[in-house]
Amino acid sequence: MRKFLSKKAYTTITSNLLIFASYLNNCSDQKLNDYRLPIPSIDTLVTIFFSELINGNKLHLVAEGSNGFKKNLSSLHVNLLKTFCLRTFTLGALLFFHACLYANDKLSVPRPNIVLIIADDASWQHFGTYGAKALDTPNIDKMAELGLVFENAFASSPTCAPSRSAILTGRNSFELEDGMLLTGYLPKKFHTYPAILEKAGYKIGSTGKGWGPGGLYGRPKNPVGTPYTYLTQNFYKSEFDESPVAEINYAGNFNNFLFDRQENQPFAFWIGFQEPHTPYFKGFATHRQIKNSDIQVPSFYPETEATRSVIASYLAEIEHLDDQIGAVFEVLKNHNELDNTLIIFTSDNGMPFPRGKGNLYDHGLRMPLIAFWPKVITPQRRVDDLISLTDLAPTFLNVAGLKIPNQMSGKSLLDFFLTDESGKIRSTNRKIFAGTERHGKKSACKLWSIKNLLPDDAKCGNYPSRSIRSDEYLLIWNAIPDNYPIATDVKGGLIKKEIVRKNDNTNNFITINIEKRAEFELYHLVTDTYTVKNLSLNTAHGARFKEMKQELFDYLKERRDPRVMGNHTLWDLTPDFILHQGATDFIYSSKGQGGSIPKKRLLKMLETYYKEHDYDQKYITKVLDRLEKNMN
Questions:
Q1: The pairing of beta strand 465-469 with beta strand 473-478
Q2: Which residues face 314 on adjacent strands?
Q3: Which of 20, 178, 393, 574 could pair with 170 in a Cys bridge, judged by C-beta atoms 3.0 to 4.6 Å apart?
Q4: What pTM value is reported for the model?
Q5: Is the distance from CB of 279 to CB of 250 less than 8 angstroms?
Q6: DSSP strand E in 70-192: where?
Q7: Measured distance CA(497)–CA(444) in Å, rounded
């Protein structure tokens, strides 16, 4: 018990427990079997375990008797009321509940620091701790060994900006209006965990890729925090004429941030890697000694050397990312903050190849997720529960002792941190929901236009999709199946060319990766790990299809997803992103994203842009009026 409590909280709770026990014993001679609370010393007093289960900030209390059997205290309450004096019990219970509810420093680190490390386009399979053999990730693997690994963590959207919107707000991407779109904007009415922490006294900052790409309309700065991105370094200067990766000194910028804060001020820092996002540098995979023969090629790609070479380049950037994470840990050690810091590692979306990024399959949504917190988390644990990255924001607020806004749909992970167990922890069979609207202004399917591959009149507008995932099944709803799917293999086109070159009637690579998809896709994840066998029309799975379809639409209506509520046209009114696209330190700054542009000037810039491109005046008025309202 002492492991999870500060001395002050432990003393407060146990002293009130003694009072509570005294009242109970004075009230009646009748014993409550093994659950009688004795007066003796604290060491023999019944241990009370409690953790906030953040659904509605309700407190779950369990009493453990000498035989080790646990019983919910709420049912115990009922039995006690029947057995003991109502007045005396009520007084004791109030004292007890008061101690628990107001012990905000119940953790041994009452205001921990928080560091979120987020990769850019990395699927869960491509790290050593998740089974990858073709690369070496010693720092991430060590973090996993000394921390907690979530085996089944999922992004809320398979592209960067909407996924990051969901992480910041703790809401599903389809609940965030314009925040669901790449190059959109995150309306200021949606609270973000950095802003809440900052109001509570935390120092907030970031380095690398923050929220975006998109506009900071109504927000003075990037919602991940003040950018520290100006310290650069070419890590491979002696090997290459130009840097094969982003020249961002992530650890150095983090170090500068720590020197900027006040003494003993808690902090929350966002480290946004640009790796392993495309483009890739020729020769870098060879330099990193990626083991091509050990690369596991998904069954929906041709297993050729060309395919392996592209994946090898991607893995090489993950190795670089791992090096920098090791440097981040060294910075925390040097500042003597490692033990007092909750560190989370994850990614925003999956690998930037066909059927990965931009798609609602596991290779687009399933993420690495590792938590490291030496003073709280028992090491060498792996959890099988389904987790959403929307859970991170409420978790950060929870560990900081702050109230979680009702608008957040994610669930705190604190109960996973406080237990010593592995495997399946929660009793409920949670489902994970995700969605996408479009990748940029329109879906990128035209970029697949290899000769004779797509018809000239191919519909390449939006490709809105939603999904529900359980332990065993994945159901995807493609709202406009007449359109072609989003194609995200837009820069590293070699896999795309291999798909076309090696396609035949036995592998159907083009059908799987490029052609139109059914309105509903149902996959049995146990027998079809690469999600290529659509069972939505299979009568043997009819009952499961009907059940999951109902649950999906019920949830979308409950969360008021515009796509099912009749107001999905709001995404047609998201203003075009017309600002400069330049170096990372500019793109994710207030100037680069429009946060420093006065509202009237920004509206005038957009109006001029639309008129120059011959947009209808009624449409222009609708866009600008809606934007102005959201900025107020």
A1: antiparallel
A2: none
A3: 393
A4: 0.82
A5: no
A6: 70-72, 113-119, 148-154
A7: 16
Query: d(Cα 256, Cα 251) in Å, to the nearest integer?
Result: 9
Could you give phi then psi for residue 387, rounded to 5 degrees? -125, 140
Q: How many helices (H) and strands (E) does the chain have?
A: 20, 16
* Mean local confidence (pLDDT), 177-191: 93
**Interatomic CA distance for residues 485 and 513, integer angstroms:** 9
Residue type, 173: S
Token representation of residue 478: 């493609």
> How many other CB atoms are found less than 10 A from the CB of residue 531?
24
Strand order in 520-524's β-sheet? Answer: 432-436, 465-469, 473-478, 520-524
Beta-strand pair 370-372/341-347? antiparallel
Whole-angstrom distance, CA of residue 390 vs CA of residue 171: 6
3-state secondary structure 263-330: CCCCEEEEEECCCCCCCCCCCHHHHCCCCHHHCCCCCCCCCCHHHHHHHHHHHHHHHHHHHHHHHHHH
Using CA atoms, how far apart are residues 593 and 393, in angstroms rounded to an integer?
23
% the chain with pLDDT above 70: 76
**Amino acid identity at 350:** G
Q: Which residue from 278, 373, 389, 388 is spatially nearest to 332, judged by alpha carbons?
A: 373
Using alpha carbons, select from 173, 61, 161, 243 the residue that is nearest to residue 467: 173
Q: Which residue has the higher pLDDT, 98 or 450?
A: 450
Q: Are 230 and 278 in contact (CB under 8 A)?
A: no
| Longest Cα–Cα distance in the chain | 89
> How do residues 202-223 score in pLDDT, each as one tens digit?
999 999 999 998 888 889 889 9
Tell me the two tokens of residue 64: 């453990």
CA-to-CA distance for 69 and 309, rounded, in angstroms? Answer: 56
**Confidence tier at 577 by pLDDT (50, 70, 90):** confident
Q: Which residues contact 118 (CB under 8 A, 6 or more apart)?
A: 164, 167, 209, 270, 271, 272, 273, 345, 346, 347, 348
Take residue 112 and report the two structure tokens written for it: 């921990």
| pLDDT for 488 beyond 60 | no
Q: Which residues contact 208 (CB under 8 A, 6 or more apart)?
A: 229, 246, 248, 250, 253, 271, 272, 273, 274, 584, 588
The enclosing H or E element of 333 equals helix 305-334
- Spatial neighbors of 492 by CB under 8 A, at least 6 apart, are 278, 279, 280, 310, 313, 352, 353
pLDDT of residue 444: 53
Q: What would the pLDDT profile of 60-114 be if each residue is shown by its tens digit?
A: 334 333 333 333 444 444 343 344 334 444 434 433 443 333 334 456 667 999 9
Helix (H) or strand (E) holding 467, with range, is strand 465-469
